[in-house]
Amino acid sequence: MSVQVNWGACQEEARQAYHLLVELHAAALALPVRLESAFDPREMRMEEAQWKRAYQRFGALPVGLYGVAVAPGTDLVAEQGVGDLADDLADIYRDVSEGLSLWDAGHLREALWTWVFSFETHWGQHLVDAQRVLHWWLFTRHSNSAPETFLRGPVSVPGESPQLPELRVGTWNVQYAAGKERNVLRRERLQRDPADIWVLTETHDDLDLSETHTAVSTPQRPTGRAGGRWTTIWSRWPVLEQIEVEDPIRTVAALIDAPMGRVAVYGTVLPWHSDPGPSGEPVKNWSEQDRVLPVQIAEWKAIRAKYPEASLVVAGDLNMNLGGKHYYGTRRGRLALREGMAELGLGCATEWDRIPEGLLQHSPIDHVLVPSSWMGRASVVDAWPGTDARGLKLSDHSGLLIRVLGE
After folding, report:
1. Of 1-10, 67-76, 136-145, 234-243, which gets the smallest average pLDDT?
2. Which of 125, 156, 260, 380 could form a disulfide with 162 if both were Cys (CB 3.0 to 4.6 A apart)?
3. What is the model's pTM?
4. Coil, helix or strand at residue 287
5. 212 Cβ neighbours under 8 A, 6+ residues apart
6. CB atoms < 10 A from the CB of 297, how many?
7. Interval 63-77: pLDDT, tens
């Protein structure tokens, strides 16, 4: 077992964003006085899909919603509103990019006009608000606290509108993460809709998310190339403890300090139909899953009993579809899993009927199980097949991402 701790990831991301905003603010103030131009900036408007990708990327920063004065002026009791750091940064990105497109096309006067006009009327306010909340997160909120409180994640600014916490958990069997070029595409896929916690199975150290996440992994796979892992949990939030497990080869567990409270995450690869198990000898189809499933369910119960303050989340390659037409697995395996879930008070957030129509062609065999009390607040926000739109195979499994809203 191994834990790759990256305690400064959240702080470093926030600090880098803060420094870039300061530089951008100085550059904006150095622009010439607004020039006369008949140019309509809407002609260069960024496509909504590109803006959404930027918004999702900026959502990885450790601050989300925050309080802001609607019209500060000189009114000492100004009305309070809610800002969104990801929205601030995505809007800044869009407005500045539109000017860059004009500049690159040789329309220098129009580019300068666009930057000055949009700074004064739109993105300048977003810039000031973003700098303010990042300054608070980096330098004010922890001034009398231990260093680890840097990584507590989104909390409300005292005296201002509180932030509603959420948790995003994803899982994907990445088919041993083979191929350097394919890993670039896999990483892009994972970053397109960033998760707070990723449970990657049949993975490899080459698929590295350590710029933003901390890894808790199973050891080197007994077979395969160096760096291969059956399961890795990647967390954007602090890993408080690696939890001991019965099968450290294929399963890994960690106690994570998330904004919604502590979460005990159990990542697993359940046996497939012809899996020989530890013996390596041929066995009857599905017999290894029949053996392992009750053992793991008992372990989930033990973890929940040991960490009663934590919410239990189980994710990974369960090698069975839940809901929809039969695709993979056995009836008895599904029944055993559902009975265990019912006893533990877990629900499957990735059931076939919970996946938005059109994202996948068949019910997935990888899943995220969450407390039943979360099910009403949990939704699948993305799911993707293993083969991308260009026909390039990145995996033989589909990937899934869920979001759980705070109460």
Report:
1. 1-10
2. 156
3. 0.65
4. helix
5. 9, 10, 13, 60, 194, 236
6. 19
7. 777 877 655 655 555
CA 167 to CA 77: how far, in whole Å? 34
Q: Which pLDDT band, with edges at 50, 70 and 90, does 146 fall under?
A: very low
Q: How many residues does the chain have?
A: 407
User: Around Cβ 206, how many Cβ atoms within 10 Å?
Assistant: 17
Q: What six digits make up the tokens of 265?
A: 């995450």
Which residue type occupies 51? W
What is the number of other CB atoms lying within 10 angstroms of the CB of residue 5? 12
Task: Taking each helix axis as running N to C, give the angle between helix 331-344 and helix 287-306, from 0 to 180 degrees, rounded to the nearest 10.
Answer: 10
Scored b (16 or more CB within 10 A) or e, 347-375 reads bbbbbbebbeeeebeebbbbbbbbbeebb
Q: Name the amino acid, one letter, at 281.
A: E
The mean pLDDT of 315-327, rounded to a whole number, is: 96
| Structural fold of domain 2-151 | Four Helix Bundle (Hemerythrin (Met), subunit A) (1.20.120)
Residue type for 249, please? I
SS3 63: coil
Distance CA(257)–CA(268), nearest Å, equals 20
**Cα of 27 vs its chain's centroid, Å:** 32
- Residue 227 Ramachandran class (φ > 0 left, ψ -120 to 50 alpha, else beta): left
**Which residues neighbour 344 within 8 Å (Cβ) at sequence distance 6 or greater?**
297, 300, 301, 304, 312
CB 5 within 8 A of CB 214: yes
- Pairing type for strands 228-235 and 197-204 reads antiparallel
Q: Which fold has domain 166-405?
A: Deoxyribonuclease I; Chain A (3.60.10)
Instruction: Express as a percent the part of the chain with pLDDT over 90.
Output: 62
| Residue 145 neighbours by CB distance under 10 Å | 10
Tokens linked to 157: 């600014």
The position carrying tokens 């129009």 is 110
CA distances from 374 to 16, 110, 242 (A): 34, 51, 24
CB 115 within 8 A of CB 16: no
Give the tokens for residue 331: 């009836």
Question: Which string of DSSP letters, residue by residue, matches 9-48?
Answer: HHHHHHHHHHHHHHHHHHHHHTSPSPPP----GGGGPPPH
> Which amino acid appears at position 349 of this protein?
A
